[in-house]
Amino acid sequence: MLLLPSPPALAIVTRTLGEYVSAFRHILCRSGPAPKRRADAVLLAANARPNAGGKLAGLTLWGEAAFFPPPRRAYVSLAPPLQRKERQLLFRLKRSGTELFGGPLPNKTTVHELLVRTGEADDLLPYRRPLTSLRDLEEWPFPAAVVKPRAGSRGRGVRLATLSPPYLLWGQDAHGLSFRTAYQRREDLFAALVPDLGGTFLEEPLPLLTPDGRPYDVRVFLLREAACADRPYLLAVVVRLGLRGRFTANLHTGGTPLSFREFARRYPDLGTAERKERLRKAAVRVGALVFRLFPRAWEVGLDFGFRATGEPVLLEVNGTPGRTSLRALGADLPARRLTRLLRLGLSPCAAERYPGSVVGKARARAGRGCPLLRGLSARTKDPYPRETGTIAQTAAGGRERASKGREEGAVVGPWSYREPLAEVGFLGAGRIAEALIAGLVASGTDGGSILVANRTRAERLDELAGRYGVRPVRNVSDLARAPLIVLAVKPKDVPEALSPLRDLLGPEHVLVSLAAGVPLAALTRLVPKAAVARAMPNTAAQVRASATGIAFPAETPSAVRGRVLDLFSRVGSAVEVEERAMDAVTALAGSGPAFLYAALEAMVQGTEGALAPEVALRLARQMFAGAARLWEVDPAPLAEHIRRIASPGGTTERGLAVLRETGALSAFSRAVAAAAERAAEISADVVRFLEGKDGPAP
Ligand SMILES: NC(=O)C1=CN([C@@H]2O[C@H](COP(=O)(O)OP(=O)(O)OC[C@H]3O[C@@H](n4cnc5c(N)ncnc54)[C@H](OP(=O)(O)O)[C@@H]3O)[C@@H](O)[C@H]2O)C=CC1
Ligand SMILES: O=C(O)[C@@H]1CCC=N1
User: Fold this and answer.
1) Whether the Cβ atoms of residue 420 and residue 451 lie closer than 8 Å to each other
2) pLDDT at position 605, please?
3) In this structure, CATH architecture of domain 424-583
4) What is the ipTM of this complex?
């Protein structure tokens, strides 16, 4: 086992070592032999092989997440979705008192909405509206609309729709496959967008095509100017040029990165100096705003387009911008990025809090040693005393630092430990809560922005914190820190679970209940001042494939609807329904997966004696996944899919006949009806309980 003698000042957490080694080498060795010194910065590759640790020019490259003295700070350079091993590493760092920086920003739509709320970048943001009904298409003020999923990534699901006949829909589906379809009527176009309903918004179309028909957009890479400052440093401007015939310029769909100069050479009318200057100013303004809103962010990638008038428009904010384009533009850009990150991590803000200690001394040493390391580690008066000794002692020291930080409660600049804002709280930490948390974290939601409380089992909360980096809350009333609260307790526990929150939840809160059968009116009685909603997801939320039905009271404002629909769209497909349909939704979407699993189990039993159980299960699993995928991609009527399989006089026909004759098929209909009936019974019980408690139900 390799051990560092003392904790490094900074770790850069990466997915693999290889990605960074060349940049480190570049930084360290450009000017001759590397300095012989103790490592101040380490690379911590969450997914590297255990034996990958080693030294390169004085810096330790660390491949094993399990054994190392926790660094003081770690810069997280991992794009979502995070893998389990990565989440575990971050949790371990957090628990040891390491200050974490970087990492993904909240979902892109949330970032956009936060920017709108500041009112400081209105002139740079595109016109946007949620798509919730046909009327939204009818009243759209532009001849076309960009249609985007609220929780999309890598350009998936981004489409362009023309809003006069023929109604064209052009772009990528949720699986990243390109398509172009024409519809006769606006209703048909709307119907094609329905699967995303609620999780979708319309955005102003921009003329982002070159004269030779290639789509483009511009990504500006920004880093903080200094650790304490919100001012951005502009690292690079990259134009992304897409393939002809495509509608987006995303590099994942075959785009090519170009420098702005090269773009201007090829397309002089688009790459004008005036456009570049406006873009630079816009990027610096938005960058400062983003760094102010997200104190843990050290770098962002801002995607811009232009209106016909040449005004830049901000399309997207990325907290972990892909580095492919930087590499393509020049070998020194990735190295420059890394040098600046190291500087941010190892120097300046501490100097402001501990005057005279770091920066001044570092400057005095300039000119000696490896010039590129100048100022990175010249600590003479260390503001954070180093722990040495065993891992256990080191970890204990880290915990001490962490608790000291909490006592001080200081939230000044990016150096102090600052937890992300609470975005969603879970009341109940059982099976469906975990499925949703897993899906949210996989969609890029920061685990630290998720609060979780339960009734008694503290070890269960620790388990979830270890797996997903969520924040356990021992006191249910602390959940009121989150604007959105998901109630995930059994229906019978709802009144008791909500009682500590009754007076704490106000109009700024939304309570979303998952409890089967518990009516909206009952929820309103239990938390009278908060907005309420009912949602019925299923366990496939864990893999971001839930089918979720959501109901709101009639008077619910569209902003509240949007927030709830956004949450569930991150873990699958969400659709708004009337409350009276919720029992049926519960039976079909909530319980439905269990009915299908039971059917599969019975089918596997039918092969007993002929197939080894593990082979039968493997085949059944792929058969089920394949059938679901096919129906998703080709939504032909189920009868048609059945017809394609059942050859006349063949095997399928014989099997189907048995299902019909024995009543097995109608038994499935009855199972769904019975589940819905049970939901209705639960409703009646809850209403009776509340009546008994505090007068007649509303
Ligand atoms: N499972 C599923 O597929 C789906 C379930 N649902 C609904 O979600 C709800 C939860 O189901 P599920 O996750 O399966 O249930 P679980 O039994 O797995 O979990 C229930 C959770 O509720 C907590 N809890 C109970 N009472 C209280 C209380 N008074 N205060 C705080 N926490 C409390 C429990 O904490 P502790 O362990 O400490 O007692 C536990 O964490 C149900 O209402 C169900 O109808 C909806 C859709 C799908
Ligand atoms: O079985 C139940 O009651 C819950 C609701 C839907 C799925 N599980």
Assistant:
1) no
2) 96
3) 3-Layer(aba) Sandwich (3.40)
4) 0.98
